[in-house]
């Protein structure tokens, strides 16, 4: 299928391209930008006048829930939701049942993702067997099966010695380790950020030090082992400062933040709505502002949805008894565009944090518009608006943003030159 896309403002943060151009796609790849190749005759033409063309979004954390949690979501439903949010490449965490700690689970996920065809899936394998933190998973076998990085989520390793050995082993094979910096002892029993809001509501608090103490340890071990490290789901301004200091020392460290952490604060918990129950928790306004600044200056190079769909019952109990997480991947682009609307970021910088930044962090073959690159791209109308929830593809309706009018609208998502979503 040969496709010509004409009239769009083409923005490629990886190369700095920002101009009105035509795009020519053939064989699943971009074969030319601006000028048609000799003898090119399009089978399909897309009029993108007034639209923005960018690389497809790259989301570093989308829980697909399959295998094991089909009541919450499936690979087919959640990758379609991702495509509706403009995402063409996504990483799924190892929190499945069985845990993503064997080649068989990785291959099952990849086979079903390919069968669904909505988005490219890059699994993150478990760092330890069953995420128990005691024995190292078969990292090289998982890498060979398609895993692009390894992590233990919020589940702690048994002790610092085990963690150190895991990092040294990963460094030996040039594997990337994904950290979720939260000290399990300091966070135990906590439901909300430790501060005035939690005190007023009578909710057990999780202090900022739950993140920063774990982060300090992890950064020291990263420095000692030389492993490539990605810190996922930062929540505190102080944590972002620590990442900046590590990067200034030359450590191979990258970081991402959940999209909702750049919008919401712990004050959203005032009504005890379980839709705002997330782990790690929403923090104070100063933390949100510090995270925003770190995104702006590039210390945090990636914004991710940290999509966690749940069935309705999971959010119906009293706040403390509900399951944490927000279903948000199909709103990733509209939510992100609020940062442009608020004047925090210009559009090319925002797109860099959603495409080239995350792709670079985990060394994914994605996130750029260039001749010879896969034709994974997004066409969106920055002037239109999205009524969140008007259409909804995820099995999880646990989103506090449903019903909100958000800027921007995804018109086309293309994967390998094929339309995977049209809105």
From TrEMBL:
Pfam families: Amidohydro_3 (PF07969), DHOase (PF12890)
GO molecular function ontology, one term from the record: dihydroorotase activity
Enzyme Commission identifier(s): 3.5.2.3
Superkingdom of the source species: Bacteria
TM annotation in the entry: none
Annotated Gene Ontology cellular component terms: cytoplasm
InterPro entries in the cross-refs: Amidohydro_3, DHOase, DHOase/Allantoinase_Hydrolase, DHOase_cat, Metal-dep_hydrolase_composite, Metal_Hydrolase
Keyword list, A-Z: Hydrolase, Pyrimidine biosynthesis, Zinc
BP GO terms, sorted: purine nucleobase catabolic process; pyrimidine nucleotide biosynthetic process
Domain Dihydroorotase catalytic: 54-236
Residue ranges constituting the Amidohydrolase domain according to the UniProt record: 342-421
Natural source organism: Aquipseudomonas guryensis
Record protein name field: Dihydroorotase
């Amino acid at each position: 299928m040969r496709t010509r896309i004409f009239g769009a403002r083409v923005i490629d943060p990886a190369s700095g391209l920002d101009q009105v151009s035509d795009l020519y796609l053939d064989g699943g790849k971009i074969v030319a930008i601006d000028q048609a190749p000799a003898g090119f005759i399009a089978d399909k033409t897309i009029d993108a006048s007034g639209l923005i063309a960018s690389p497809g979004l790259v989301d570093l954390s989308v829980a697909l829930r399959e295998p094991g949690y089909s009541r919450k979501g499936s690979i087919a439903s959640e990758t379609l939701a991702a495509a509706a949010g403009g995402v063409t490449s996504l990483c799924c965490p190892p929190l499945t049942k069985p845990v993503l700690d064997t080649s068989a689970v990785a291959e099952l996920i990849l086979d079903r993702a390919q069968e669904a065809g909505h988005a490219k899936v890059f699994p993150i394998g478990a760092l330890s067997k069953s995420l128990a933190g005691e024995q190292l998973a078969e990292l090289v076998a998982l890498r060979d099966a398609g895993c692009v990085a390894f992590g233990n989520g919020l589940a702690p390793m048994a002790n610092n010695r085990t963690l150190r050995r895991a990092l040294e082993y990963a460094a030996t094979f040039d594997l990337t380790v994904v950290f979720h910096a939260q000290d399990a002892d300091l966070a135990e029993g906590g439901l909300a950020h430790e501060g005035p809001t939690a005190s007023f509501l009578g909710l057990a608090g999780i202090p900022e030090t739950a993140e920063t103490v774990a982060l300090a340890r992890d950064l020291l071990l990263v420095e000692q082992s030389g492993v490539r490290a990605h810190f996922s789901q930062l929540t505190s301004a102080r944590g972002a400062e620590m990442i900046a200091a590590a990067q200034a020392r030359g450590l191979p460290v990258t970081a991402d933040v959940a999209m909702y952490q750049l919008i919401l604060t712990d004050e959203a918990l005032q009504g005890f709505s379980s839709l705002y129950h997330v782990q790690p928790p929403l923090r104070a306004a100063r933390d949100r502002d510090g995270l925003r600044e770190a995104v702006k200056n590039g210390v945090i190079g990636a914004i991710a949805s940290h999509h966690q769909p749940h069935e309705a019952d999971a959010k119906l109990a009293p706040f403390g008894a509900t399951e944490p997480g927000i279903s948000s991947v199909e709103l990733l682009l509209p939510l992100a565009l609020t940062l442009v609307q608020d004047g925090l970021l210009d559009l090319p910088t925002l797109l860099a944090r959603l495409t080239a930044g995350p792709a670079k962090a985990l060394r994914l073959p994605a996130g750029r518009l260039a001749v010879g690159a896969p034709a994974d791209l997004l066409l969106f109308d920055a002037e239109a608006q999205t009524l969140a929830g008007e259409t909804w593809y995820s099995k999880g309706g646990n989103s506090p943003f449903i019903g909100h009018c958000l800027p921007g609208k995804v018109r086309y998502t293309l994967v390998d030159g094929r339309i995977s979503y049209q809105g």
